[in-house]
Amino acid sequence: MKHNNDDERVTEIQLPSNNEIHDEALIQEFERGIGSQVFILTPSFPFVFIGEITAVVGDNVVVDVQTTTIGELENRIWSIHIHQIEVFYIEQEGLPAIPELRDDM
Fold first, then answer.
1. Strands (DSSP E) along the chain, which ranges?
2. pTM of the model
3. DSSP secondary structure letter of residue 59
4. How far apart are CA 30 and CA 57, in angstroms?
């Protein structure tokens, strides 16, 4: 009697990890937000970014930053890696706008 192990074909299925699914969902969310204002908090300096999403390149979101915690870093293009984003809010029609932050009060 012939053993069928030699004839069996094993197909390995690789499912994406939870991190890969999470990253892809974030990338898609930022892609949908291109042209919109965004508020981003990160755990590292300069911590806060407010500006317009201009592009998504790989797993980086490109933001034309108008406001951050350091005035000298404002009005510049920033590329922010999605893994560094702790909290974000993308403006959408019908939802609250990001408030203007001013230090002249």
1. 37-41, 48-57, 60-68, 76-81, 87-90
2. 0.81
3. T
4. 10
